[in-house]
Every structure is written in C-alpha cells, then in structure tokens.
Amino acid sequence: MSDHYGRFQLSNATEQARRAACQIVEAFGSHNVASYFAGFDSDASFVFYTEPRILGSRREYEAAWRTWEADGFHVLSCRSEEVDVRLIAEDVAVMTHRVRTRLVGVADELRERETIILRRGSDGRWLGIHEHLSPEPEPEPAVARATDLHSEPER
Q1: How far apart are CA 115 and CA 76, in angstroms?
Q2: Average pLDDT taken over every residue of the chain
Q3: Residue range 44-60: average pLDDT?
Q4: How far is CA 119 from CA 83, 93, 128, 149, in A?
Q5: Other C-beta atoms within 10 Å of 53: how many?
Q6: Which of 74, 76, 95 is nearest to 85 (CA)?
Q7: In this predicted structure, what is the pLDDT of residue 142?
Q8: CA geometry: angle at 84 spanning 81 and 87, to 5°?
Q9: I need a labelling partner for 56 at 20 to 30 A (CA). Which of 46, 67, 91, 150 fits?
C-alpha cells in the first residue's frame, strides 16, 4: 500500500511540475511578462544561445528582457511539442520540449529546444531554477547508402 501511495505522490508531483512548466511557456507565449517571470525563482539562471553571457539571476534576465523590448522584442505566440517532464528527485523536475515561437518583426517561426529545471519550494510551489534554450538543429540531408551508390546494375 505504501508503494502505491508513493507512486501516486510521484505522479502527482510530476503533474504539478508539468503544470508549472506549461504556465511558464503559456505566459511567455502571450508576452505576459509578470506571469512569466513569476514562474522563476529569484536565483534562477538562464542560458540562451542569443546571449553572449549566462544570466545568473532572474533580475539579470529581467534587465536583458527590458533591453530586448526596447529594441522591439515582443512574443506573438509560443507552443510546445514533444514535452517531457521527469522527476529526478522528490522536489526537482526537468522539463524538455521543442519550442515554436513567433516574434514581432520576425517572418520565420523560431524552432528551438528548451530545458527548464524546476524545484518545489517549501510552500509546495514549483518554480523554474534554470532555463537553457538552444536552436533546433537543421534536419540532416538524406544520405544515400554506400551500397546504393556503388551497386552493380542488375543483368
């Protein structure tokens, strides 16, 4: 019975972490800046391929965000694909997904991959403590098999 209860607790924690991560993505996608940043702990760190340095706190990220907005940055939409949330400790979860984002002034949809690490606080709330964003690699071109290139024609 305790095993079943333990699995239920883990499943429930995973679902809570998933909801928290999805709320972060939804807030980002609607450019709801206050809700977006409220999803992260104050000491969270952020790694973006578009930024030359690691942002070591939510405050640093908020300052960078304001600079981006002054330059015209505005999110139109964001959606997740292939979402995976894994509980790696009782109070730590990792969410990975593919991200499709549309920005004002950018014709093409951005295709990226993202990892958000979440930690459950003593108040039971799940907050992001690290975010890492990278560009999605271009699909590799189809490569003909060596046997197809060098095979003898049938006689």
Answers
A1: 21
A2: 89
A3: 97
A4: 18, 6, 6, 52
A5: 9
A6: 95
A7: 65
A8: 160
A9: 91
The encoded tokens of residue 121 equal 């606080």
- Look-up: residue for tokens 């003898």? 152
DSSP sequence for the chain = -HHHHHHHHHHHHHHHHHHHHHHHHHHHHTT-HHHHHHTEEEEEEEEETTSSS-B-SHHHHHHHHHHHHHTT--EEEEEEEEEEEEEEETTEEEEEEEEEEEETT--SPEEEEEEEEEEE-TTS-EEEEEEEEEEPPPPPPP---HHHHSPPPP-
Going along the chain from its start, the domains and CATH numbers come out as 2-137 (3.10.450.50)
Residue pLDDT, tens place only, 6-15: 444 558 999 9
